[in-house]
Fold:
Amino acid sequence: MFYLRKFLDFLTTLFLISLLTFLTFQLLPGNPALAILGPEADSAQIQALEEKMGLDKSIGERYILWISGALRGDLGISYQYDQSVSKLIAGSFSVTMSLSLLTLIFTVLIGFSFGFFYSYISRSRFFKPLSTFQQIWFSLPSFCTALLLILIFSVKLGLFPAMGYSPLFKTGFFPWLHSLILPALSLSLGSGAILARYTTASILNQYRQDYVRTARSKGLGEWSVITRHILRNALLPSVTTLGLIMAEILGGSIIIENVFSIPGIGKLIASSILTRDFPLIQGLVLYLALITLLCNFIVDMIYTIIDPRIRK
Structure:
């Protein structure tokens, strides 16, 4: 019942988001057909394009056509590119997925390793200076980190390219990895600091629980207390944070993808907004909602693995 309830919540939320997204763009002022053809178009041309785009139908009919098309994988035609929105998103998704996977790996390595380390040295005199250093990366915007990394590793050292993307199946593994190291680090240093902060706080909170004092009274060492007793309970808040970070990364970083000129979802979002490409924006909003809901759904499933009591 737990899994069925979560799945029904997923479908209901996705439906409401799709409805709200569609209505928002339909109620915006202006005529999309006139925006495409320009002010010099005559009324016959505008009317013909309106009929082709389905603008002559009621809002209810247009929504049914749009959502039924979305269920088939058809999100309409982009005004700007004159291509299928689904194909544009799919092409950019492969790029964003490549960046996201590498960023997630870096985020998990940075976040959990530093979180465990900070909690382990929480009584040391080095804890406060290191926490200050963590706070800097936590507060620094990702584009500032990107510019700093470009200055050091591209301009000064010449180790990594400052922009561009090398597809994995066209250029090979090493050019692909080489082009994504700096963008992934730009995103993961900040998100890793956030994850480390929550992991540290969660572990330190568990230190004050009765079961930890019982474990220590049995003579267990500090490392054994953390790995065998604290870690399982401390992971729940960290998994929640990681789920939110996953959704943000998979949604595509608009700023980072534009800074490094990576043709992913983030760059497509920026382009569609600037050109007021409504079908493409609608498709991207639906994609972002789907990604966020999927990440939350996966986090809920991981919860049940870490703590089976949640299913009850």
About this structure: The mean pLDDT is 78. The chain is about 75% helix and 0% strand.
